Amino acid sequence: QKEVEQNSGPLSVPEGAIASLNCTYSDRGSQSFFWYRQYSGKSPELIMSIYSNGDKEDGRFTAQLNKASQYVSLLIRDSQPSDSATYLCAVPYSGGGADGLTFGKGTHLIIQP
Amino acid sequence: NAGVMQNPRHLVRRRGQEARLRCSPMKGHSHVYWYRQLPEEGLKFMVYLQKENIIDESGMPKERFSAEFPKEGPSILRIQQVVRGDSAAYFCASSPSRVEETQYFGPGTRLLVL
Questions:
Q1: How far apart are the C-alpha atoms of A111 and A15, rounded to whole Å?
Q2: Smallest Cα distance from A29 to chain B, Å
Q3: Per-residue pLDDT at A95 exceeds 60
Q4: Distance (Å) from the alpha carbon of A46 to chain B's nearest alpha carbon
Q5: What is the pLDDT of residue B98?
Q6: B105–A contact, CB cutoff 8 A
Q7: Tens of pLDDT, residues A64-89
Q8: Which of A1, A13, A51, B63 has the greatest number of beta carbons closer than 10 A?
Q9: What pLDDT is recorded for position A1?
């Protein structure tokens, strides 16, 4: 079974700084990668998807993918207290196409005011 | 465009009873996924369905659990003879097609087994 690994944290970052969240995956054939944010007691909310090596930016969020190293990261610039949540990295079972997702256990991020 | 809908949001059952969880996907979405999140655990895939078909049920326990997505109406996750270990948050997600794979999650059903 595919594995997705994340540091559980908590990761504490001062307000206004850059938060860096990391994820590694076991299946070299994986093609699609997703970052979700989950507030306590709530459902996962899609933040970013990335399919190609390199960086993808969306507002304050940047996803970075390195398939050779089997590594995907999420950077959050100008961190806000409202960014405090658990961030989940996810990879489709089959590596691509509609399929069930394998999730990491998530990184708990705390933004300190 | 309404999001993924799940009901009930909270469900309390006694051991041995049946739990039925319902999920209506986003408009235009024909793929439904069910996930379970145990307390202090990560999200685990259970089953993937399209209309009238189970595509992948590899993550669903072999006993007591079943899922369906009929031609008309919501997808149903059914848990028979619930036990305390079934207490968890059950999330449904949907995606529009086999090609567009991004999944959008519903608010979840919190099941508590007494």
A1: 6
A2: 16
A3: no
A4: 7
A5: 65
A6: yes
A7: 999 999 999 999 999 999 999 999 99
A8: A13
A9: 63
